[in-house]
Automatic annotation (TrEMBL):
<keyword id="KW-0732">Signal</keyword>
<dbReference type="InterPro" id="IPR015391">
    <property type="entry name" value="SurA_N"/>
</dbReference>
<dbReference type="GO" id="GO:0003755">
    <property type="term" value="F:peptidyl-prolyl cis-trans isomerase activity"/>
</dbReference>
<dbReference type="InterPro" id="IPR000297">
    <property type="entry name" value="PPIase_PpiC"/>
</dbReference>
<dbReference type="InterPro" id="IPR027304">
    <property type="entry name" value="Trigger_fact/SurA_dom_sf"/>
</dbReference>
<dbReference type="Pfam" id="PF09312">
    <property type="entry name" value="SurA_N"/>
</dbReference>
<keyword id="KW-0143">Chaperone</keyword>
<protein>
    <recommendedName>
        <fullName>Parvulin-like PPIase</fullName>
    </recommendedName>
</protein>
<keyword id="KW-0413">Isomerase</keyword>
<feature type="domain" description="PpiC">
    <location>
        <begin position="199"/>
        <end position="296"/>
    </location>
</feature>
<feature type="signal peptide">
    <location>
        <begin position="1"/>
        <end position="30"/>
    </location>
</feature>
<dbReference type="InterPro" id="IPR050280">
    <property type="entry name" value="OMP_Chaperone_SurA"/>
</dbReference>
<keyword id="KW-0697">Rotamase</keyword>
<dbReference type="InterPro" id="IPR046357">
    <property type="entry name" value="PPIase_dom_sf"/>
</dbReference>
<keyword id="KW-0574">Periplasm</keyword>
<dbReference type="Pfam" id="PF00639">
    <property type="entry name" value="Rotamase"/>
</dbReference>
Amino acid sequence: MQAVNRKFLKRALLCVGGLAAMSSALTVHAQSAPQGEISIPDDVKIFGNDNPNMRRATAVVNGDVITGTDVDQRLALIVAANQGKIDEEELKRLRLQVLRNLIDETLQIQEAKAADVSVDEAEINQSYARVAQQNFGQNTSAMDAYLKRVGSSADSLKRQIRGELSWQRLLQRNVQPFINVSDDEVNDVLARLKAAKGTDEYRLGEIYLAASPEARDQVYQNATQIVQQLKGGGSFVAYARQYSQASTASVGGDLGWVRLAQLPTELQAVARDMESGQLVGPIEVPGGFDILYLIDKRQVLTADPRDAVLALKQISLPFPKGVSEAEAGKRAEAFQTAMKAAKGCGDVDGVAKGLGAQVVTNDQVKARDLPAQIQNSILQLSPGETLPPFGSLEDGVRILMLCGRDDPQTESGPSFEQLQAQLEDDRVNKRAQTYLRDLRRDAVIEYN
């Protein structure tokens, strides 16, 4: 799974160069016939139904059947990620996109099988268990129950895992060995990285939709609808996995940490002005449209104060049942006054005990893992100082006291080996998109 989880800059547009430059030892499909100019008159006349496949829900891909149930169960994951807030028109579009994704997934699994690349069931089950733990904080039984409850299934998610692992393993064997990155290239990037010390670096999520000139307007409308769904509370990671046509789709659209110079020109000005948590798009780029989400921002090779490791004590005092908001405010104010009598963290337990409050200690809290609205405030505290009280009528009142702080060391940047792996990964993913394009071109697909 290491190759699946690496989060490097993986811009893999569908219009990248073909596989002809690769070694003849690669197991790929035969080259297509010479390309000619496609001629479409301006006054197109459609004979018959102008959209015959619009509502066809199933397909047979090189003999393998994709059923309506397959589509429904994969679609259910997207609906669940959006708390069911998807209108009927959007659902129709989602269903077609899911079908296209399943076709690509089927082609990837078929190609891996034809090349004698296999993935053991045990490995799929391990990945499934890891997804359950990381995304749901649950064991696999709870995950199974959740998927069934939302209308999906464990088999559907495991099939997606199989497709991703099969494709990655195929690329590792048939593409990666033929990718070369010279020492001079790596050293040049390292030099530019050091020269950029102190400049801003961005951790971005992307959803990329490819668009041919004739499909531009339709793809733009699709991208706009995705943005609306995301702004309405949709999961960016879920939408990226299902919609994005960049290779970062397998990691939820995460581009990793990048600098503006590494982005296409069209995205540089947009990213520069974004704030953490902001969503922007659709943005037209060569070959299609991008939707960007700024996950975080930092400075190159500069220590980020938010990476400081804090030692904290949380003092909690519950409210009586049925307390009014006014009474809760008075109790919180009295609690804060009483806690000021504590002379640092060594004394806080005794004071809290006298008030009937509970103390929880944690000395491994990263500042960046705290809610955004208190990160800067807590970094301004000295040991023994506290933040203002916070809480709710149900949870009671709480106060955080800073007991210590280990500041981060200055970032040294990626090593030669790490950067070389990133550059290789980028090239592999560009070849992967062309590989998949060739599989689509040669596939026999029957729609039912």
